[in-house]
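The authors assume throughout that readers already know how a fold can be written as discrete tokens. For illustration, here is how one protein appears when written out as sequence plus structure tokens.
>
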Amino acid sequence: MIAPHSAAPPDSPRAVRKAVVPAAGLGTRFLPATKATPKEMLPVVDKPAIQYVVEEAAAAGLDDVLMVTGRHKRAIEDHFDNAFELEQALAAKGDTVRLDAVRDPARLADIHHIRQGDPLGLGHAVLCARHHVGNEPFAVLLGDDLIDPRETLLSRMLDVRERYEGSVVALMEVAPEQIHLYGCAAVEATGEEGVVRVTGLVEKPAPGTAPSRYAVIGRYVLDPAVFDVLERTPPGRGGEIQLTDALQDLATGGTVHGVVFDGLRYDTGDKADYLRTVVRLACDRPDLGPEFRRWLGEFVAGLADGATGDGAEHRAA
């Protein structure tokens, strides 16, 4: 578990206490699984993906979390609520382990929900949080973008916000042939290792036009000034209001910094990366890892031999 971030004093105008988790997407890449189940609720081992995101926010000291959801996302609200009948049944059986697991989501933070209504893009989803956030800096964590629980990216970003103010984005260096899949940042050095000044941003640049290999990934610490910019930001790529476009406006004033991240990140909105995420986190679990790694080794060895394994997968099922 990551140690809680040492936040600024509560009366500091720079203190970050609130997190916004946009979770209104349709999850079309995972159809038909997401026809009736929110993509953020797909299990990663035995917890839905979005719970890892809220745990990350709570570990960084953000105890006020607003989830921006959409239609057919009621399961997210239910997951972070108390389940009286289930808790009562587990308590009656004396199953304290599962009882704690069921209660944990509701105890992570003070969790609120608002519906986006129309799917008008990430920038619009962030704008929906304006009345809840008020005139405070806040974090944004994308609901299907997981950072390994052992990493301290969000805490680093909060520290950079305290020192530089303005807004902070998370950056990851990617291969040139992948940069068109992301928002991309033009940067200049600050003299501090792992921290850059963002001078420009472009959403999903055309091949050969990217200003760098620094991709913007799903973690932001935003100054409330972003709301006024979003209000006047016209629809951009895909006909949606892009958060990247609003941050480009702020970057021209020199108020956006980037924290370069080279740790473990998982995109659970992508099928192949979702599977890798489940395998990696299962291997790391002390209760599952030893047996699962043994089986995985046998399975992979069987694939190398042109078979599907030695039958261990059937015995373990």
